[in-house]
Write a structure and sequence with these properties.
By secondary structure, this protein is an all-alpha fold. Helix content is 61%, strand content 0%. The protein has a domain of 104 residues: Serine Threonine Protein Phosphatase 5, Tetratricopeptide repeat, CATH 1.25.40.10. The longest helix is centred in the middle third of the chain and has 17 residues.
């Protein structure tokens, strides 16, 4: 399934390490250098959903041989779709974004209602800095999997990145609502509490940021990053006196 890494950078006042980093999604590892962030590919198989609904529909119509082979080799198309989704996540976690995009597109060809296809493609768009595109894809995934608390955290993460860079995405209040709903579904999600802490930090609500960071720490201390802690300490000392 999807892997989680524990780097997180939000504030525009962060040091050079933070300025060069993305807030990671729950659904993806930190981007490796194996495949460059080339956003200029014209080959539609490397574009989310083949670039447009029209192109996607054309691909579906022209995929008869591919579908025949899938029918021969898998129990059904849902099983085949899951296979390509799993390969997509593997390539994404290796930093092979274009290869992963193609696998998620194949997943979509086999099952247009696959939330994994939209989730994976949205994660890739985020890695490429296309936050608005990422938000739209992830939200479509959430429509197909409305109680997916981890996906809610990922959408909120993209919105926090948009807020930081003042891009045209949904506002931070919506990110807070998503995080709240996610944690109502699964209050043991340490990553959710971490992102809630980061959101409150961005809003300069430092007491809340500490409260949620400690909730994260109690659930899984491996999520707590010293860089973020140090930035928070600069704004307000730890009320519990645990972090110095």
């Amino acid at each position: 399934m999807k892997s989680i890494i524990y780097l997180f950078v939000l504030s525009s006042s962060f040091l050079s390490f933070a300025q060069a980093s993305l807030i990671p999604l729950a659904s993806s590892k930190e981007l490796s250098k194996k495949e460059a962030l080339n956003t200029d590919y014209q080959d539609i198989k490397y574009l989310p959903l083949f670039g447009s609904k029209k192109k996607a529909d054309e691909q579906i119509l022209n995929a008869s041989e591919f579908l025949i082979q899938c029918n021969k080799n898998f129990k059904d198309r849902f099983d085949a779709s899951k296979f390509f989704a799993d390969r997509g996540w593997e390539y994404l976690n290796e930093g092979l974004l274009d290869t992963a995009t193609y696998r998620f597109n194949l997943c979509f060809l086999l099952n247009q209602d696959s939330f994994d296809a939209y989730w994976g493609l949205g994660s890739i768009s985020y890695q490429k800095g296309k936050y608005e595109e990422s938000t739209k894809l992830l939200r479509k995934g959430l429509e197909l999997s409305p109680d997916n608390s981890i996906l809610m955290v990922d959408i909120a993460t993209v919105q926090l990145a948009c807020y930081k860079e003042k891009k045209n995405c949904d506002d931070i209040d919506d990110a807070l609502r998503l995080l709240e709903k996610s944690l109502q579904i699964d209050g043991t999600n340490a990553n959710g509490w971490l992102k809630f802490s980061i959101a409150e930090y961005q809003l300069e609500h430092y007491e809340k940021a500490w409260e949620y960071l400690h909730k994260c720490r109690l659930l899984d201390i491996s999520f707590v990053d010293t860089s973020f802690v140090q930035e928070l300490i600069v704004k307000q000392t730890d009320p519990m006196g645990i972090f110095k």
